[in-house]
Write a structure and sequence with these properties.
Elements: E1 2-7, H1 13-23, E2 29-33, H2 40-52, E3 58-62, E4 77-81, H3 83-92, H4 100-110, E5 113-117, H5 130-149, E6 152-157, E7 160-165
Parallel strand pairs: 1-5, 1-6, 2-3, 2-4, 4-5
Antiparallel strand pairs: 6-7
Helix pairs in contact: 3-5, 4-5
Amino acid sequence: MIVLVTGGSGSGKSTWAEKLIASLPEERRVYIATMQVYDEESVRRVERHRAQRADKGFITVECEKDLAAADVPAGSTVLLEDLVNLMANEMFDGGDVGRIVPALEMLAEKCRHLVMVTNDVFSDGITYAESTQEYLRQLAQINHQAAELADCVVEVVYSIPVCVKGELPCV
C-alpha cells in the first residue's frame, strides 16, 4: 500500500500518518526524517516529532537528501516525513531534484507499505521571489507524481482525514 498524506501546516497530517503506520501489522517500521536542523525552532519540531513516535517501534533513518541512499530494509513499513523538506534540501543545498521521483519509485518497490507526507503550501496567494516560485513549481510536480504513484491520497483538514484518491485506510 502506498499512501500520500497532505494538508496545511499544523493540520494533523503527521499524527494521522503515524496512526496509519501504527494500525498496520507490526513489522519493521522505518521513519525517514528529511528535516535539516538549523535553528531552535527546527530543534523543537524534531523533538516534538520524536516524542510523538517514541513508543511506536520506529527505526529512524536521517536522510536530508539523496533518498535512494537511505538504508531501508526490504519489506519495511516506511513513513517518509516529508517531501517538502526533501525537495528544499535537494534544490537549495547542492542536491538534485531530478532524483526524487526515481527514488520514490524505488522505495515503493522495496517497501511493504509506504506513507509519504507532504504539505499544501500552494494556496496562500502570495507572490514570491523567482527562486521560491521555482521551488513551488517543482514541488507541485513532485506531489503530482507522488499522487500518481499512490494507491490512496489523503488530505488532513483539522485532524480529519479526507480521501482524495482510492479508499481511506482504516486507522
